[in-house]
Amino acid sequence: MNVTIATATLPKTGALILPAVEGTSLLPTAEAVDKAMSGGLKRAMKAADFKGKAGQVLDVVAPEGVGVSRLYMVGLGAARSVKQAGLETAAGTMVARLNAARVKQASIAADPIADADLSDADIAAHLAMGAQLAAYRFDGYFTKQKPDQKPTLTKFAVMTKAQARAKKAWEIQSAIAQGVYLARDLVNEPPNILYPESFAKKCKALTSHGLKVEVLGEKQMEKLGMGSLLGVGQGSVRESQLVVMRWEGGAQNAKPVAFVGKGVTFDTGGISLKPGAGMEDMKGDMGGAAAVTGTMLALAARKAKVNAVGVLGLVENMPDAGAQRPGDIVTSMSGQTIEIQNTDAEGRLVLADALWYTQDRFKPRFMIDLATLTGAILVALGEEHAGLFSENDKLSDQLSEAGKASGETVWRLPMGDAYDKLIKSKFADMRNIGGRNAGSITAAQFLNRFTNGVPWAHLDIAGTAWQSGAKPTSPSWGTGWGVRLLNRLVADNFE
Ligand code: BES
Ligand code: MN
Ligand code: ZN
Questions:
Q1: Residues, CB within 5 angstroms of ligand 3 (ion)
Q2: How far apart are CA 357 and CA 451, in angstroms?
Q3: Which of 374, 460, 467 gets mutated to test ligand 1 (max ligand atoms within 8 A of its CB)?
Q4: Which residue's CA is minimally distant from atom 14 of ligand 1?
Q5: How confident is the model over 10-61, as pLDDT tens digits?
Q6: Residue 395 and residue 382: Cα distance in Å, rounded?
Q7: What is the model's pTM?
Q8: What is the CA radius of gyration of the chain?
């Protein structure tokens, strides 16, 4: 689907969408259309009890007096509550409706909204963004899709009087959407196609966007002493990889911001094998690495004025004869030893070396890791928030704010010495699991031991990287969660 910013001229074909604000008079374009229809729009609104509530849709088939064959109104809620996420949801909802109605072309009127906190250009750009995010499809593996299963909508135009400024704002949003699309693709890909080496190859291809990309194989990681990460991959025939991506858009000597992603391309649990039911979801256990990759692409595509590094620990957790055992003791790059008590607590083992490497090499301003780390975070927060763990209040606040602004929200949970004690081991510096309680927190305490005092935050995205049902701006299983959050964090605080 092609999303464009267009002039405010009313279209002659396809569908016309008129957003409406609850509790006030019609927006200017809707008012003009109602006049052309001799009051027919207001009559339809009254008949359908359409008040412009957020998410409410009015469908007028074959309206008289206007050229288009279909006319829709979509509610935005009260003017003061109109924000980025609401506009995106409204446009996203309409994309699904238009496809269901087999519409091929649509135009949406992006009128300025008095009392809303957004400029007219931003209103247009976020309507475009919502449509773009909603148009995502992952259907490349269907060979027998019938025409009526395919989307019809090919053109989505956002009409605005602020065309030049809206185009600029849309260029930025469109770069972010590219990052979200990439992250979703990576999460949705099957694990026989996306494994550490093929993932790394996709990262290499991002050099065309101006990213610098290095890939370390097992030999190089052995030299660096990454026994913790390598232990996880040793039961797989696929070679483990560490990917380092750099975007240098900031001042030459400015310290970078750093993002680190868990990239377990499939998590069987290893020798501590997972139950079979639902195991196919573990193809998404690289959701953290996908979010980091998508963020790096977004930053590069919009030429962000920041230096950023993205580090991915890519492994496959399999249980073959070479696999590590419960009871094994491994030595991490930091020199700290770890007793493996459960091979299914593998994400933290991967991140331990990836985090240590990142701080050691780049001395970053901060590190944020993203990981589908614990089932326990789903129990605590469901699919609505990612878990945020950090000893740094400032970074935590910045992340919380960026979450609210982008719609990818986080919820902070506690850390501390009492939790840290729970990962003591009888035989080594630590063990890789705590007890039954506070499973997401003990995982975070584990990671904390590999940060070397650098400002750090951990996002447990096991509940947000993929989803059980579709949402207006997130139609597929893989959500691409994290790209918009991290992009927003950078844009608001580090550029
Ligand atoms: N990848 C899983 C966590 C997970 C579970 C993500 C469900 C998404 C949905 C992780 O590697 C894992 O297996 N964690 C264990 C830790 C336990 C052994 C301490 C878990 O959560 O059960
Ligand atoms: Mn696991
Ligand atoms: Zn895992």
A1: 264, 267, 285, 347
A2: 9
A3: 374
A4: 374
A5: 999 999 999 999 999 999 999 999 999 999 999 999 999 999 999 999 999 9
A6: 23
A7: 0.98
A8: 24
